Amino acid sequence: MWALCCPGCRSASVPYLCIFLQHHCRKCGKAVCGKCSSKRSTIPLMGFEFEVRVCDSCHESITDEDRAPTATFHDSKHNIVHMHFEATRGWLLTSGADKIVKVRNYLEQRQSDT
User: Distance between CA atoms of 54 and 56, rounded to whole angstroms?
Assistant: First the structure.
């Protein structure tokens, strides 16, 4: 695949064959070298809740607001042995090794959020 190298490591006017050390920025999708994609960032609005490789120019353009998580992570505090989601009622049932059963109603939560 022919590509233009990023300005940080070669002249952008000289095409070269990218075979090794080619990376793709998860924000803009451009193929860049490792030197010019040395940064990582979260991009929750694009589905990346954990840090992924981005090119240096995109890393500078991502604001703290862009990095704000859209998902929440919870510690279940018990080893889940079985999990069942009842979609029609919106219930999530978990049972753990500690013999505790937890039920959470996601439909009521969604209605109260709106």
Answer: 6
Predicted TM-score (pTM) of this structure = 0.50
Between 14 and 103, residue with greater pLDDT: 103
In this predicted model, what pLDDT tens digit does every residue of 56-80 receive, in sequence order?
999 999 999 999 888 776 665 668 8
DSSP state of 113: H
End-to-end distance of the chain based on CA atoms, in angstroms?
48
Tokens of 57: 């120019």
Nearest to 3 by CA among 28, 27, 30, 26: 30
Q: Identify the sign of the CA torsion 21, 52, 66, 60.
A: negative
